[in-house]
Each structure stands twice: as C-alpha cells, then as structure tokens.
From TrEMBL:
Transmembrane segments: none annotated. The keyword Glycoprotein does not apply. SUPFAM superfamilies: ATPase domain of HSP90 chaperone/DNA topoisomerase II/histidine kinase (SSF55874), Ribosomal protein S5 domain 2-like (SSF54211). Keywords: ATP-binding, Chaperone, Nucleotide-binding. This is Molecular chaperone HtpG. It comes from Cellulomonas iranensis. NCBIfam families: PRK14083.1 (NF010683).
Amino acid sequence: MENQSTAAGRAFQVDLRGVVDLLARHLYSGPRVYVRELLQNGVDAITARRAVDPDAPATVRLRPGPDGTLEVTDTGVGLTPAQAEELLATVGRSSKRDLDLGLGREEFLGQFGIGLLSAFMVADEIELVSRSATDPQAPPVRWVGYADGRYDLTVLPADAPVEPGSTVRLRARRDTDHWLAAETVVALAEEFGALLPVDVAVEVPLPGAQGTAWRRTSEPVLPWRAQYRDDAERTAALAAYCERTLGFTPLAHIDLEVPLAGLSGVAFVLPTAVPPGAGSRHRVYLKRMLLGTQVEDLLPDWAFFVRCVVDTGVLRPTASREQLYTDDTLLAAQEALAAQVRAWTVATLTSPSSTSRKVVATHHLALRSLAVVDDEVLDLAAQVLPFETTDGTQTLAAVRESHGDVLHTTRVEDFRRVAPVARAQGMTVVNAGYVYDADLLARLARRPGWRVRELNAQDVAQVLEPLEPLRELEVLDQVRAADAVVRPLDCDLVVRRFEPEEVPAVLLEDREGRHRSDVRRTVAEADDLWGGVLAGLTDATDDAPARRLVLNDANPTVRRLLTAAPDAPVLAAGVRSLYVTAVLLAGEPLRVREAELMNDAMGVLLDAGLSPRTEPRVPDETQEDV
Ligand SMILES: Nc1ncnc2c1ncn2[C@@H]1O[C@H](COP(=O)(O)OP(=O)(O)OP(=O)(O)O)[C@@H](O)[C@H]1O
C-alpha cells in the first residue's frame, strides 16, 4: 500500500504517428487530400481576415519547388505567436468552432482541427511562418511540426520580411515526392479548388526551362451563376463545363436551387444508357470546395439518368470531408432536389421536343426496370413513357384520361392480333408485350386511382357485331362445317361483321383459355394417376377451345367463301387458309402443322382455280371416286 501512487488529472499523450496513420488509412481517401486541407486553411484564413477588412487581398499561391518542396502562401488572417502555440500544438484544436474571430462556424470550411496533420501523409515536417493581419504589434512566428509529435516554435524579429498571412512549407519524403510535383499540385488544386471564390494559382515551369508562370486554377464565378448573353450561350457554356468536369456532353441540363440548404447547381442528363442499379453519384462542392465526385444520397435511385454538380453553403461534411453528413437539412434538400428533377422530367417528357425524344430513347428501359420495383418511378413512368397502343403512341396517363380503364395485352402477338379490330372499333389497347411492361402494368393495377386490366377474348368479341338473324340462318350450315375444320386446331369459329372489312379473319385468344388447353394436353399425356390429379385442377367438362377464329362477314372473300356448299373441300381449304392468315396477322410464327395446312389448302384452291370451268370446281368424294 505504501508504494501506491495516484495519477490524477493528467492529460492524454497522443502519439502523432498513430493519429496520422489513422487519418491516412481510415479517414482520408489518400494522400491527395493534403492539397485540399492546405487550400481550405488558406481560404478560411482569408475569410477571417475579410470579416474585419473586406478589402484585404484574397490570394492563395502554391509554389512547387524543383527539389520536392511545396510552399503554400495565403493572404489570410495569419497567427500571432500565442495563437500559433495554442492552435497548432494541440491536435483537434480549431479556431473555427468558437466565435473568437467574430464569425460563426458556418463561414468556414474547416472545423475539426486535424486538417493540417494530413500534410504528414506526404512530408515528415510541416513549417508554418505567419504574421497576424489583425494584430500589427505581434511579431511573425515560425512553427515547425514533426511527424513524431514534436514541434518547435520561434518568434521571429518584428521587422523580419514576412507579410501578413501564412506560408506553409513541406518537403517531400523520398517515397512521396510525386505528390508535390508541379503537375500533381496543379491537377489537385484544380480538382479540389476549381470553384473557390478566391484567386488560387500554382507556379508552373514554362516549356524549355523559360522560367515560370502562375496558372490560375480557380473560377471566379460558379458556371451556373455566371452572366451569359442568352439561354443558348448559357446552355452551351454549361455543356462545355460538363464535358470538362464530368467527361460527357449532356442531353440537357436541369437548374437546381434549394435556398434552405444554400444549394445551387445543375443536373446534367446523361447521353448514354446506364444500368439503373448503378445508383446516382454526384459532384458536390461545399462552400465551393470539392467535397467529392461520387457523393451518394443527393438524389434518389430513380434519378440515375442525371449527374449533378452542386455547391452548398449549409450542408455539413462527414469528418473525411468526402460525403455529406445526414441531418434534417440534408433530408429536406434531397426531397427538394428530387422534386426539381421530377418536375423537369415530367414537363420535358410530356411535351414533344427533340430533347424529350432523345431522353426517352436513351433512358426508357432503365426507367421501366425501376418502375417495376419503385412506386415513385412507376408514377413517373405512367406520366412520361410512351407506350404502343391501338390508338397510336401514348402515355398510360393519357389512356386513363380518355378511357378510364387501361386495357392491355401482355404479349406482342396478342397485340398484333387484336390491334386492327380494336383500332377500327375505337378501343384503346396498350401493348405491354415488351420487356418490363407487363410487370409494370401489373404493379400499376395495384396503385390507387388506376383501373388496369388485361384484355381478354371477351372484350374483343363484344365489339364484333353479330349477324342479322336472316344472314345467320343463311350461313348456318357453312359455319358449322367451318367450325369442324378448325376444331382439331384447338380453335372454334364464329362469323361476325367488323371493321376494317379488309381483314378477313382474326384469331382471338385468352390466357385462361390457353392455360385450360395446356392442362388438358398435360392430362391427356400424363399417366392415369397424375392425369386424375391434374384433371381435378381444371374444369374437366369445360372443353371450350383456347382460341376463336372470327370470320368477317363484311369481307368480300369471306362472303364468297360462305356461298360454297358446306361439304365442299374448297370451303374447308378456304377456312384453313383464313386460319393461317389470322395466325400470321397475329405475328405468330407458322409452325409445321400450319404450314402443312396452308399447303393442303393451296392444293385444293389451285385445283379449283385451274379447272377449265369458271365457277370453282367443287370436287366431292363421288367425283374423285369416278
Ligand atoms: N493558413 C493558416 N492561416 C491561419 N491559421 C491557420 C492556418 N492553417 C491553420 N491555421 C490554424 O490552425 C488551426 C488548426 O488547423 P487544422 O487545419 O488542423 O484544422 P481546422 O482547419 O480548424 O479544421 P479541419 O480539421 O476541419 O480542417 C485552424 O483552426 C487555424 O486556426
């Protein structure tokens, strides 16, 4: 007990190498961010100085030296020796959290008090020489920090040739000198600082060892806020900006503005199709410093067809400064941005223009695929995507508006089959036979306010006019005989009148009928036990065929055919060829069976046509026997 000693109230010792390692490996995306952190400190210092002296110069100059050094000089507020001691000697200490400088935190880019340490990723020593711009009595100061955690602080003579502001000097390690090379510094200054409102320039060697020149890397005005002569000039300038920064020529641009988040920017519409799963990633600037080029969560997934460039003054960064910190303001901003992109999309795609055609042609498939899983996109798709209908190309919303119900087929063949008749009858049927569309309509059917249903044979049969009773009697025997011809093809036959009269026959089919006939076929093929079980699943007594051939009594060929004797081979041959015609009209491929039918029918019809008599020869069994 005597040896016991208590250590109370002692301060943590921090091993700086561990901290730098932590930052390098886990916080920052790589050593490259050191340029961002130095620029940020320079800009913040200028902001602080301008708060008290609005006319103070606002420049940051980066001078990469030939010997692996880099000097970054700002005309900012500078530090007194006391401030340097306080702020630079303590990891995590920042002047930007308190109101010492008369400004709130939101005015500054930095806040965590660790940014300067990032320079240890590329150098073993950081030197900062500074003179306070706000305290003219304070002498300049030289502070040198070492990666092992030590630092030296020297107060320089008051008359030392040091301008107000700060200069940071780094000397690269052998393995990091490429990070300080002039071309790397230019590239990084442009990447992170292109939109900074202060004058940032890098000293670059002129070709042929002709000395050096300053290369400005920051734009004075945000490209979307700059003044242009007219809209056309602005559009061209923004397209050129998109090419420079995002690497593509946009199909269109959408202006974005969310005052609540101090946010403005542009969404550029991608010129090529992208997989919808690719998500949406954007270029975000925070107080005009690049936060990241792949920032997620700014827009919902359905906005996969745009890439944004935005600047925000209010949203906060995560500590890595590479993503946005999720808070209520971010959530509200996301909602507002989504609403703006949606409003543009609806307005553009619902009015015909070359832009809307290009956007639809490029992105419709991805929009459809997302609509199948996302109600928001579904609603959008229903408003903007064109669908093939029997009444021309229309959006689903337009079909609903004019008809209430949205009737559709789920296979292209079904659509082709009914289209001519439906069109002539003024019915509007949507072709949902292409990829994603049937699923999209099935989902839409469950959305409130939508009455969506698949077309069945009944719908079409109803619009086909029955024959006059007298005419019905007249052709009764022929119809019966014709029905017997198609029965073996899992089809029955009726005669109706319908427009257009050029269409001699249509083949109607419904999925239930097809399902019943599939089950029947399986029952027939299965062994006794399974046949019995399967038969129980369907209505065994219902042997209505899956398809119906409807002959058009308004068509002259059909009317002529129905004058043939009921047992005449030419009637059967004519019905078979009408059946095949209807199959082809439906866009279905001809199977061997149907091709044979067509051949047989042709044979009979040719015999009849080539006979010397003008009236079709009507061979019958008795004659053939002779
Ligand atoms: N160029 C500079 N001019 C004036 N003061 C500076 C300069 N660089 C750093 N400082 C002072 O040193 C403090 C610590 O800087 P550091 O970069 O580590 O953190 P920060 O900028 O405050 O926050 P963050 O970690 O978010 O960048 C700053 O708050 C600032 O007071």
